[in-house]
Design a protein that fits this description.
Dihydrofolate Reductase, subunit A; alpha/beta; 340 residues; Cytidine Deaminase, domain 2; 22% strand; eight-stranded mixed β-sheet
Length: 340
């Protein structure tokens, strides 16, 4: 079905920003005119323009490439410009959005209000917003007598929203691991700098980073965010049965300022955080797997190896999405079957 094709494009784009939009959900949008895609964009960061605004801005610039809109980055400025200058240019367009457009004014203006004024030929929404503060966009558009369809690629959109649903409810815990095609995880850096940059970017969003004591002693990691231009380093929980005094405090992670490092044989501290990343290998995964909601695998295809791991069988989890960050690094997401 053609509608599903365009919605899947929006969903794929949103997955590329999964975890980076915290505490907001990952959302994608696609603008189509006469069967031609004008833009596919996603929400990238809390406080920045939402997916609809990014997609509409990009589509407008496709139609009006010399517009001064191209220099605008604040959501409020983009909204104001579009409301004053659209001249009905979207009335023969459809917009596909993975999540119901927000109906409230928070850090950014209401996307539902913008869509109401621009009067797209049709708005297609994958799933409704579970956030009661933001929901209501569907009703608003319907009351404005606009053509709205709901439920296209609904299940795929719900998978995309898994982290958001869980950190709205209580907390969200994911396990991050890097490996080669054969499942090997030893021998220093496995993936490219692009993957390292992404991991460091995600670290700026999380509330707590959990790592095993053996990894700390063996790898002597820093676990900071030095590869991104954001001075925010997560608090650390070193999960270990060994006492705190047994750890060499010259290990770099202990030297990072403005961070709390806790050493404990208990995972109770995870209950006090909202967004938790666990970094480690297979041993830590086996010890902690009943605690996690999702796995994020950084798979390197740099070296073509004769043996290929069956990743779902290895972890006993369902793969829900994957994409290539670059030519060699594949990002794979898996989650527990019973939590779907």
């Amino acid at each position: 079905m053609q509608s599903c094709y365009y919605m899947q494009k929006a969903i794929l784009k949103a997955w590329q920003y999964q975890f980076l939009t915290y505490p907001n959900p990952a959302v994608g949008a696609c603008v189509v005119q006469n069967g031609k895609i004008l833009s596919i964009k996603a929400h990238q960061k809390a406080g920045d323009p939402h997916a609809e605004v990014n997609a509409i801005k990009s589509a407008f610039l496709k139609l009006h490439p010399n517009s001064k809109l191209k220099d605008m980055t604040k959501s409020s400025d983009i909204h104001k410009f579009l409301l004053e200058n659209h001249n009905g240019c979207f009335e023969d367009c459809q917009i596909y959005v993975t999540l119901e457009p927000c109906n409230h004014i928070g850090k950014t203006p209401s996307c539902a209000m913008l869509l109401e004024q621009l009067r797209f030929q049709k708005t297609i929404i994958a799933t409704l917003d579970i956030n009661q503060e933001a929901t209501g966009g569907l009703i608003r558009l319907q009351k404005a007598n606009l053509d709205v369809e709901i439920g296209i690629c609904k299940e795929e959109a719900k998978e995309l929203l898994t982290p958001f649903r869980l950190w709205q409810k209580k907390n969200f815990k994911f396990f991050k691991i890097a490996m080669r095609e054969d499942g090997s995880i030893d021998g220093g850096y496995i993936t490219s700098q692009d993957s390292l940059d992404l991991v460091h970017h995600i670290r700026t969003k999380i509330d707590l980073l959990v790592i095993g004591g053996n990894t700390v002693r063996t790898d002597r990691p820093t676990l900071d965010t030095r590869f991104v231009d954001i001075d925010k380093n997560p608090d650390i929980l070193i999960y270990s049965s060994n006492p705190p005094e047994s750890f060499d405090k010259t290990i770099p992670l202990f030297g990072i300022t403005n961070r709390k490092v806790t050493i404990s044989n208990s995972l109770e501290m995870m209950n006090e955080a909202n967004f938790i990343m666990i970094e480690g290998g297979y041993h830590l995964f086996e010890n902690i797997k009943n605690q996690i909601d999702m796995i994020m695998v950084f798979m390197s295809h740099k070296d073509s190896l004769p043996k290929k791991i069956d990743i779902e069988k290895k972890f006993g989890l369902k793969q829900i999405h994957s994409y290539f960050l670059n030519e060699t690094d594949e990002i794979i997401f898996l989650k527990m079957e019973e939590k779907i």
